[in-house]
Fold these 2 entries.
Entry 1:
Amino acid sequence: MKTDSEFSSEGSRSIAAAVREELARRRISRQTLAEKAKISLSTLEKALSGRRPFTVATTIRLEEALGTRLRRPEPADIGAKAAADQAPEHLGSYARAAIAWLVGPYLTLRPSFGDAEAIFAYRTEITWSEAASCLVFHEQDRLDAAFNQQGWVSVPHQSGHIYLVTSRHGQYRLAMIGRPTMTGEMYGILTTLRAGRGTQLTPISTAIALVPMAGGGQEEPALGRIAPHHPSYGGYRAHLARVTDEEFALFKAGN
């Protein structure tokens, strides 16, 4: 049972993502961080893996050790005035019941930024946030786990598209995807920053596909960096090819 000193599962996931990002950026081990924060390595490992929620006391110690704030503003701060089952106006004013079909796990595919021939595959979970009164998304099972994204889902009626928006300290990342096909797949464009050498960050846009993940004990799809020789490569490449072949999105080169 959650206590007043513990963060919600959503809040704990946000803090865990922030801690992993700081560990990757500073290139320090979890053991080193635990020692600096004066907490046990076991406590840190369990919180990062989701086996136990982050507590206020543990989070404060981690913030002091890292010299940065880990508790990010939650969607609740933005949607506090929205009706309980309706998203705020700036996210499309959609009703929870009307958008229930979008909830669930998706196999997410995009070209690999580090290998021109490979495909990057990971999981994206879309859920309804009671606190924010809107849909939110969380990326999971990425090879570069420190860069897992999370944010809000905007579904405006006018454009007929779905927007997965991440905003952190004024830095935005956007996936603009079309409504699902008859079999549930969604295709579109991802605009983000590509990490280069040192601290170099370069804007990049690429095709992206979200494919519903089947449940019922069926075999899990292959995740990670999928090379051309992998058995799943052909099917994954076909999904990405649909983005431009069927004009779910277009890429215009400059003159």
Note: Residues 78-82 have pLDDT under 50 and may be disordered.
Entry 2:
Amino acid sequence: MNSKYELIIYWSEEDARFVVEVPELSGCMADGLTQSEALANAQIVIDQWIETAKELGRDIPRAKGKLMYA
């Protein structure tokens, strides 16, 4: 995992999967059957989120690390 963005990982009983949210990147989420799989999928989604933002000429938030209210 080479991302410096804060990741929030939790178990979703409803989905029966681990979910990873990336609060600094609007709408950026991933899931997986294991924590490791969910984190690996999160890195893929983060890379895609950033690539898409660049293509659209949008600002890419700087990773701030731990959020105050997370």
Note: Residues 18 and 63 are 23 Å apart (CA to CA).
